[in-house]
Structure formats: structure tokens, C-alpha cells
């Protein structure tokens, strides 16, 4: 089975993450960049499927030059090759633009049966890109998968949401996005790290994908961040002495906060 | 050409091990340490990512890397914890390396693949209860009886010798008398579970509490003649080479510990307040941390240099001794200062610096004490053998 895995470079959750003052886009200088953990799980799942059934794993990533680190990591885990969309014009692109670019980039990969992605990135957390890509490519989408299995040309996933667990199926090719529960990703071995140096990475611009630079980036984005502020420090809270009316007071408080 | 940058694959390895240490080791190691328990699951994971195979060729299940790659992995592990670092160091550099270097094709085929995967551990028994520094004074004997070696004697403080996955101990033993009347010393592979080979209960140690250390005894312990490792009578020369390399590895662990102290202190002084300010505002604290960083940095350069000479096939005896001496002293000094910076919390086992403090001292003792390193450096400088 030939698999495309979407990966993204994100700021390390261990470091302080900030948006720039100028245009409220991610301040990429402020934090260490790493391969998004959820993408590591998507890569891991792809590798497990490949190890069981054979085929090729292609990593597709959109991001600045630095994203090569994330791509390298996926390759050193065991992916076979990569497509990297890197273009100044992409700066500030929103979810819809990103999905369009990625859909085109996926189109350059020949004969894929499955597109795997993380459910939502740990930085933007829009969680919409996999579904948008499925729509653009006219493919079925199975999101929030915590388990994936195959039977011929049918893919079955256990889909886990806050409401519960459902089993959903689709015929291949399909888009599947995975949650944290899907697996424990492997660490690359030194052998894998050295092998990754020789694996092909096809770096393309938006023009190479037949997209007009004006359609992407901050200027053409459908959504804009108008303002950004750090989370306010935690306040001391309010004490409620229970003199028999404690329950009512808590309920009143929650109503006041529009929580119930 | 002078170039201080590491190749990108070394950097990628360093980063991978760093992530592993941070994500997998740091959250659980304190409990293993307190319970004095060997962390099998961590060792299994280290094996799965190929750490035990780092310097060995792929034909034996290795990663095709080199000794420096091993050192980088050790440094990054020790930055978080020394018990797992020494388990890897002893497993690779004392357990597997002598077999790779001196073993027959058959011995390599038999032992290395499992050792490289970290599914089995090897140990190296040189030190005896009666003495370690004077390695030539060993008393354990092995006598050839028909097709068997028969071992008698005991070994002290042997790392990795008593785990559930320990496969073998390479034992240094006196196998006869040389032409000039001296001791003929050879190395013999004793598989775990061989009758007559007993592993005593674990020691109660000051540090390295999640690592495995035992006293071993051999009473009429028989192993086949082909378990001789390397040439008969070459044992002494073999382990001198093993130890020279091992010193660079121990130096890497010392650097890791020294750097780990800096990491912990930087975090702590940004949070802890005294007299109305963050303690990181006080110059007395800043200077301590600056000195700590300087020690870690110089010790790192020392082990890089020794490793570079080793990889180029140049003599590195003196450089290895300097690296080990500098790094273990840096680790000791940094652990002392880090504990001081943490104040009372530094004395509590729940903070890593307390662990660092307890783990630092052994670095000045194991694989050659600091006195032995100084003796080696003096000898390399051509000074006469002192009394
Ligand atoms: C946790 C742990 C793990 C270990 N793992 C292993 C292992 O896996 N395999 C193994 O073989 N050994 C191992 N050792 C043993 C270790 O290598 C020895 O403890 C070390 O080499 C010192 O030997 P010793 O303890 O016999 O001290 P001694 O040799 O008795 O030395 C005592 C003191 O005298 C000093 N001294 C000795 N000779 C001289 C001299 N000529 N001039 C000046 N000072 C001198 C020493 O520096 C030291 O300060 C381990 C030890 C520990 C504690």
C-alpha cells in the first residue's frame, strides 16, 4: 500500500510559544521547532502498515526551509521519500489555503492508496485540514482514528470523539486522521538517521504546483488573526464556605460564568 | 583544518537521544532510583532505538556508527540520568566491545546480535574484592582441564552482571605463568547460568541506584576452551585498550551530568525567590552557574578531542585520561554547586540534582580512579614510574 503522510513542523511544546507582534503569525524564531508529535504518530502508523503490507511511504510537508528538520525526522523513522512545499508566498496562509496547497502537492505523488494525517496540529489546532483535503480531492475522510485496519480495498477505523466510539469504513483511497491514542511512535535509530540523508526530498514552490502566489499567504487568507494576547495569569479564585447553601452558590457561579 | 561543528547525523542522533531522555527517562527514573530497581522497560526502549548497537557494523545487528556516536548518546542520557547511561556504557564498551574487537567470527555471531539489540547485556569482570587499580594483581585463576577452562576466584562491583537479561561476563583471569615468571592473564567468556558461577545480591550503593552491580564468585566454574576471548596471555593488553576507550565514554557521562546540573539550575533560579527576588538575580548564583557551564564545556572539548584521535586511529591514551579526569571532576564540582543552588530541595531525592550529587562521585573512581588517570598522564609525559 502506498501511503502519503502529512507532516508539519511546529514549535516545541517545551519552549515558550509566541505570535509575532507584526502580523500575529507564529514567531518561528522564538521556539525550537520539532516534528509535530501527532504527525510522528501518523508516520508511525504509515510505517506499521508498510511493514505489514509493503509499499512506499511519502511524506508531504508545507513549511519554511526549517521544515526540512521535520521531514528528515520522518525519513529517519523510515519513510521513503518526501515532497516539501516551500515558498515565501505561503507565509500566513490559513487552513483553507494550506489544504489547497497540500492537495496539489499530494497530487504529485503517484498511485497513493491512503493519506494519513494527524488529527490536529499542536500549534494552530484548527483540526480542519485533513477534512478539507479530502473534500478537495473528492475522497472519503475518516477522522479521529484511534485504530486503523484494512480488508482488501476497505479501510476501517475506530473513531473516538467526546461522544464515544464509532466504527467507520470507507473504500480506498481515503484520508485518515489519527489521534494520540493510535500508537507510540518509534525513535529514529542511527542507521535510520544515516539512511535518511540519502532519501529523495522533492522541494517545490507554489508555482511548481500550478498555484498563483496571490492565492496563498496572509493577504489572500480567508481568516485573519486580529489580536493576540497571552493567557492571563491564573487568579486566586473564590472561596465558597458551605453553610448548607454551598451547592446553590456554586451553581449560581457557574451560571454567572455562562458555563451551565 | 579546525572545525568545531559536528556532522549533521551526529547532531540528529544527539537530538533524538535528548528527546528520548526527556520524554521517557526523566518522568520515571526517580522512582526506579528510589526503589533501587533496574529499569528493564527503558533498557528495552533504548535497545529498540539501536543505542546498544551504535558503534557496531550492521552485519552484527549494529547501527554502523562509531564510538563517538555512542559518547554523544551517553552524554545526552546522563544529562537526565546516570544509571541508564552507565547501563549503556558498560553494556556496549565493556560488554560487547571486547567481543567485537577480540572475538572469533563464531563468538561475534553468537553474542553480538542480541547484545546490539539490547535484548541481552554483557558485563566485564576485572576488579576484584582485593583491588581494582592494580589490574595486574588479579587473583582469579582459570586452569585448562581437558576441553574446559575451570575458573576460581571472585570479582567485585561488576556492572550489568546480574540482570534478568545478562547473557555473559567476560572474566579476566590468570591462566598461567609467562616466560619471565610473571602472570599470564587472559579473558574468558562466562555465560550467565554456568554452574559454579554465582551472582551475589546487589550492593546497597550511594549512587547509580537504578543500575545493576554485583559481586561475582567462581567456584570450579567450567566453560568450554573456545570461550577464551582473544589470544591466551593477551588479556592484560586487551583490557588496557578496552579501558582507554571506556574512559572517553565515562568522560561523556561526566559531561552529561555536569550539563544536566546547568539545565536544572537555569530552570530553578528563574523560579525560586529569596529576599524578594529570583535567586537568578544574585551575582553569587550567576557566577556559580557560569563556572558550571565553563566546566561542562571544557570537559566536552576534552572528550571530543580524545574521541577524534581514537576515530583517526591515533594514540589517545593521554587524551582519554585527561578527558576522564577533567570530566569527572567537572561533574563532581557541578553536582556540588547545583545542590547548593537548590538549597534544601537539593538534598531531597525528588529533585534530579540530589541524584546528580549521589551519582557524580563514582565517576572519579570507576574505570580508573582520578589518581590512576594522573599516573597515566604523568607516564605519557615521560615521567618515571613513581612509588
Ligand atoms: C558502581 C561501580 C561499578 C563498577 N563496575 C565495574 C565493572 O563493570 N567492571 C570492573 O571490572 N570493575 C568495576 N568497578 C570497579 C572500579 O573500576 C574500581 O572500584 C576502581 O578501579 C578502583 O579500584 P578499587 O575500588 O579496588 O580501589 P583501589 O585500587 O583499592 O584504590 C584505593 C585508593 O588508592 C588509590 N591508589 C591505588 N593505587 C595508587 C597508586 N599507585 N598511587 C596513588 N593512589 C593509588 C586509588 O586511586 C584509590 O583512591 C565498579 C565500581 C563501582 C563502584
Protein described:
The complex is a heterodimer of chains A (260) and B (387). With 260 residues, chain A is of the alpha/beta class. Chain A has one domain: HUPs (Rossmann fold), CATH 3.40.50.620. In chain A, 26% of the residues lie in helices and 24% in strands. In chain A, strands 9-8-7-10-6-1-4-5-11 form a nine-stranded mixed beta sheet, with helices on both faces. The longest helix of chain A has 17 residues, at 37-53. Chain A is globular, with a radius of gyration of 21 Å. With 387 residues, chain B is an alpha+beta fold. Chain B folds into three domains: 8-121, Acyl-CoA dehydrogenase/oxidase, N-terminal domain (Butyryl-Coa Dehydrogenase, subunit A, domain 1), CATH 1.10.540; 123-232, Beta Barrel (Butyryl-CoA Dehydrogenase, subunit A, domain 2), CATH 2.40.110; 237-380, Butyryl-CoA Dehydrogenase, subunit A, domain 3 (Up-down Bundle), CATH 1.20.140. Helices cover 50% and strands 17% of the residues of chain B. Chain B contains ten helices and ten strands. In chain B, the strands form three sheets. A four-stranded mixed beta sheet of chain B has the order 1-4-5-8, with helices on one face. In chain B, strands 2-3-7-6 form a four-stranded antiparallel beta sheet, with helices on one face. In chain B, a hairpin with a 2-residue loop joins strand 9 (273-274) and strand 10 (277-278). In chain B, helix 7 runs antiparallel to helix 8 (317-342) and helix 8 (317-342) runs antiparallel to helix 10 (370-380). Chain B is globular, with a radius of gyration of 21 Å. Classes of the chains: A alpha/beta (260), B alpha+beta (387). Chains A and B meet through helix 2 and helix 5 of A and helix 1 of B. Flavin-adenine dinucleotide is lined by residues 90, 94, 123-127, 131-133, 157-159, 205, 208, 213, 362, 365-369, 371-372 of chain B.
Amino acid at each position: 500500500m502506498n501511503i502519503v503522510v502529512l507532516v508539519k513542523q511546529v514549535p516545541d511544546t517545551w519552549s515558550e510559544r509566541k505570535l509575532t507582534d507584526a502580523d500575529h503569525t507564529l514567531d518561528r524564531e522564538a521556539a525550537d521547532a520539532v516534528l509535530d508529535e501527532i504527525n510522528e504518530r501518523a508516520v508511525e502508523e504509515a510505517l506499521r502498515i508498510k511493514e505489514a503490507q509493503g509499499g512506499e511511504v511519502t511524506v508531504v510537508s508545507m513549511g519554511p526551509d526549517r521544515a526540512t528538520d521535520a521531514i528528515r525526522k520522518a525519513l529517519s523513522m523510515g519513510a521513503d521519500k518526501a515532497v516539501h512545499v516551500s515558498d515565501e508566498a505561503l507565509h500566513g496562509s490559513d487552513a483553507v489555503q494550506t489544504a489547497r496547497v497540500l492537495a496539489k502537492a499530494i497530487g504529485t505523488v503517484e498511485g497513493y492508496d491512503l493519506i494519513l494525517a494527524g488529527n490536529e496540529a499542536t500549534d494552530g489546532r484548527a483540526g480542519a485540514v485533513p477534512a478539507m483535503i479530502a473534500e478537495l480531492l473528492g475522497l472519503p475522510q475518516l477522522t479521529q482514528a484511534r485504530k486503523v485496519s484494512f480488508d482488501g480495498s476497505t479501510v476501517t477505523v475506530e473513531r473516538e470523539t467526546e461522544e464515544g466510539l464509532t466504527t467507520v469504513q470507507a473504500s480506498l483511497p481515503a484520508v485518515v486522521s489519527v489521534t494520540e491514542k493510535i500508537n507510540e511512535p518509534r525513535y529514529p535509530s542511527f542507521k535510520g538517521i544515516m539512511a535518511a540523508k540519502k532519501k529523495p526530498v522533492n522541494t517545490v514552490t507554489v508555482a511548481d504546483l500550478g498555484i498563483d502566489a496571490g492565492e496563498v499567504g496572509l493577504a489572500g487568507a480567508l481568516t485573519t488573526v486580529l489580536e493576540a494576547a497571552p493567557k492571563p495569569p491564573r487568579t486566586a479564585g473564590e472561596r465558597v464556605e458551605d453553610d448548607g447553601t454551598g451547592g446553590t452558590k456554586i451553581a449560581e457561579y457557574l451560571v454567572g460564568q455562562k458555563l451551565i | 583544518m579546525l572545525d568545531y561543528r559536528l556532522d549533521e547525523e551526529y547532531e540528529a542522533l544527539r537530538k533524538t537521544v535528548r528527546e528520548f531522555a526527556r520524554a521517557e527517562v526523566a518522568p520515571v527514573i526517580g522512582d526506579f532510583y528510589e526503589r533501587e530497581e533496574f529499569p528493564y522497560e527503558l533498557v528495552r526502549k533504548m535497545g529498540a532505538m539501536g543505542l546498544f548497537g551504535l558503534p557496531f557494523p550492521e552485519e552484527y545487528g549494529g547501527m554502523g556508527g562509531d564510538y563517538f556516536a555512542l559518547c554523544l548518546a551517553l552524554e545526552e542520557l546522563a544529562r537526565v540520568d546516570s544509571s541508564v547511561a552507565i547501563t549503556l556504557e558498560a553494556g556496549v564498551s565493556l560488554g560487547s566491545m571486547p567481543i567485537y574487537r577480540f572475538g572469533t567470527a563464531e563468538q561475534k555471531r553468537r553474542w553480538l546480535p542480541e547484545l546490539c539489540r539490547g535484548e541481552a547485556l554483557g558485563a566485564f569482570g576485572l576488579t576484584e574484592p582485593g583491588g581494582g587499580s592494580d589490574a595486574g594483581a588479579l587473583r582469579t585463576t582459570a586452569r585448562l582441564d581437558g576441553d574446559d577452562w575451570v575458573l576460581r576466584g571472585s570479582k567485585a562491583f561488576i556492572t550489568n552482571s546480574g540482570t534478568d537479561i545478562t547473557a555473559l561476563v567476560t572474566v579476566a583471569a590468570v591462566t598461567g605463568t609467562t616466560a619471565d615468571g610473571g602472570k599470564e592473564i587472559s579473558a574468558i567468556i562466562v555465560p550467565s547460568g554456568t554452574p559454579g558461577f554465582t551472582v551475589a545480591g546487589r550492593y546497597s550503593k550511594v549512587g547509580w541506584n537504578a543500575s545493576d552491580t554485583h559481586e561475582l564468585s567462581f567456584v570450579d566454574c567450567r566453560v568450554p576452551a573456545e570461550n577464551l576471548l582473544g589470544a591466551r596471555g593477551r588479556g592484560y593488553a586487551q583490557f588496557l585498550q578496552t579501558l582507554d576507550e571506556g574512559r572517553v565514554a565515562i568522560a561523556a557521562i561526566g559531561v552529561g551530568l555536569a550539563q544536566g546540573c546547568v539545565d536544572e539550575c537555569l530552570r530553578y533560579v528563574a523560579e525560586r525567590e529569596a529576599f524578594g527576588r529570583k535567586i537568578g538575580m544574585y551575582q553569587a548564583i550567576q557566577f556559580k552557574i557560569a563556572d558550571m557551564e565553563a566546566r561542562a564545556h571544557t570537559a566536552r572539548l576534552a572528550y571530543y578531542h580524545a574521541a577524534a584521535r581514537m576515530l583517526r586511529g591515533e594514540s589517545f591514551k593521554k587524551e582519554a585520561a585527561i578527558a576522564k579526569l577533567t570530566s569527572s571532576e567537572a561533574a563532581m564540582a557541578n553536582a556540588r554547586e547545583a545542590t547548593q543552588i537548590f538549597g534544601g530541595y537539593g538534598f531531597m531525592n525528588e529533585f534530579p540534582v540530589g541524584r546528580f550529587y549521589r551519582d557524580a562521585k563514582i565517576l572519579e573512581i570507576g574505570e580508573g580512579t582520578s589518581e590512576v588517570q594522573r599516573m597515566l598522564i604523568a607516564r605519557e609525559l615521560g615521567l618515571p614510574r613513581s612509588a
